[in-house]
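Quick start: read one record
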Amino acid sequence: MVAAADPRITHIERLVTAIDLPIGRWDRDARLVFCNDHYLAWAGRPRDQLLGRTLQELFGEIAWAAAAPAFMQAFEGHTLTYQRQLMHGPTPGRWARIQVFPDADANGTVEAVFTIATDIHDDVIARETLTATQKRLDRFTENIPYPLTYVDHQFVLRFVNKAYCEATGTRREELLGRHIGDARGARRWAEHAPYFERALQGRAVQYTRLVDALPQGPRWMRTSYVPDLAEDGQVLGLYTVTVDVHELTVSQEKLKRRVERDGLTDVLSRRTMMDHVEAALVEAERQPVALYFVDLDGFKAVNDRLGHAEGDALLVAVGRALQEAVRADDAVGRFGGDEFLVLAPVRDHDGAQALAVHMLAAVGSVTGNGPLGGVVSASIGYALAPRDARHPLTLLQLADDAMYAAKRSGKNCAMHCAAIAFESTR
């Protein structure tokens, strides 16, 4: 009679195939003794040119200088991470984060260390695969610093690793055999259940969120929910892999802000402002909006007499004054130079005019002080959608024309685009 396969071993094997990162195993002489197929592609060499050679021989002195401190600490039982720019493989020049952690036996002796390379150039965090013996697989899943779980199709926990137990503050025997919602609490299950259920339909999903209850403070974490598929496509269960993506998420948010915001005034950029205008015009029939074109009168005198630093400071102050003059949901952006745009929902022309007068006063409170008090003011032109225009560029042009009409009328005033025809007949 053939003995039934250990279901836990099966789960571990499937778990490893669900992870797609380059993995290597190094002995105490820093020689590569094992690597998975993804490592071969990452290194850009066949297996027989890698195994048995030291990291310094494979990738050079600079790479070894970056890795040596982490290797030393890993052989003392610690997990370390370092970053370096790769000079090998199919895409040299990309930055990678290398995690080094000990491969300890049952007695706690560190025989070797594992390395996991993550491409942080494009925030590619995927599932890794490892072809190794069952003993190595077992140690690997226990020592990997990512929380890993396996649940069956009824969401009953069948496998958790040490990192998951440490992250959740629970013991393995308190988790296995229980529905994950019962084990982790109703609130957490309500948060994660939609992703589990979507993955149960046969496709991998990810959930990124800010986790507060961590010793190091709030961190952005990403959990991947990966279906475990039988040969016939049936979903047998799900794997979850949780990784820390805090630095990458923060960097992405900073980049997004640089694109969306004007670098000097921190109001919206011209491109982002026009995106807001386009979106608002789609709903203009339901919610009319006014687009205001604000241009500073006499601004050139600030740069000429006081210098560009004072001019920049004035633009920052004007942007802040406009933001404070409108509602939080209204959009304020810099069109260019000393020109600003404001987009706000309005009920009618009287409401639009009242807001324009309010913005004039707000700008005046900033420009009326200092050595050029009274010299710098604002001219505001505005147009309404859908009343005056239904196309973003047409609405912008009408507001711009009205602004120039306000300048011709004596500056420091606001004018609706409909008044331009009246002005030309006077």
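Confidence is low (pLDDT under 50) at residues 1-6, 8-17, 124-133, 422-426.
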